[in-house]
């Protein structure tokens, strides 16, 4: 299925054509920025619809955002894209109340109010000095933790695990009831996670949040409607030629397609990109093939009565449950996620659990989740089971990148080794911090490099 660009948004002048492989947020941002600059752009997507991990599924009136659910106001580049698409009226400032479970109760704090951590009762007053040290570190390192960077500056901080940092700079209480549950947002645990991930995640706990009124894929569906997106188009190879690129793709029931363009942007997970671009440098292919993604299984429950929990999400330290990481209350993020009078909740696990149960069928995963709810939060388990009218299991093979100490230094070396003059440019979460806004930023960076390659001139950062 091909979506024809809206004439009101096509470029004023025709320039060199570009092919983008992958219609996630990275690929479509790249395509949109190139289209703004006058390049004819064609997006090839293997799935039957665009969006990637910024996609929403509708079931029985529930809108289930499949991956990206939490958007923060310091996603400056995403906010700029929303403005440039003229869809600011589809967004709103949202509830940013976070809960952390401890000793059988939920301690709640507002994400943009660090002082709530003291008032919530989550930590003893003896942890206040640790909190002060953390805030000082965040101010000190702010310049190295930026969404629009290639993580080169952050690599200088990548010397220890989140657990080691907590033991060195914070205290045991802080480690167990703040650092550990924050690590669960990466489906991980502090001993296996670089301190950079923890430090990078903390602005989300010191920020206002925003979202789209009804569904998070408002952004990607708007982009898809304004671009030439060919769906069900499985790309099999991207090769650089003497004066451009050649892209091979197929669709069931059709002969193989071959298209040529001035350049291509491959916006797919690292291992997939490696398989499609065998002509890249051996060191590049080796890095791409070994990007350390971890899997995720999460389970949605629609219920016909809204629970009393006011938080958008409740985090579970391992002291509360070894496997369950987060329960989100999606109806509290923004309206439109559930029918009137109903609620939508989602349970997320740390990745070892997902790996252990990856091959289980959906009914088994749902039953296991009910049992885990009974162990971790009996009152909520009873509410879900008494009022459930929908369940949905979502699996992501390449959910998020597991960054251990030293990985950001390797990422810096990888980014520095990429050829900015190549007619095949890369975009995706593995080029920066593994988050939606970072993926978007890599798409803009790839578009800028492609423009420089095909026009033979420099293009200012942040300009189209």
TrEMBL record:
SUPFAM superfamilies per the UniProt record, alphabetical: FAD-linked reductases, C-terminal domain (SSF54373), FAD/NAD(P)-binding domain (SSF51905)
Taxonomic superkingdom: Bacteria
Domain Amine oxidase positions: 25-450
InterPro entries the UniProt entry points to: Amino_oxidase, FAD/NAD-bd_sf, Zeta_carotene_desat/Oxidored
Pfam family, one: Amino_oxidase
Protein name per its UniProtKB record: FAD-dependent oxidoreductase
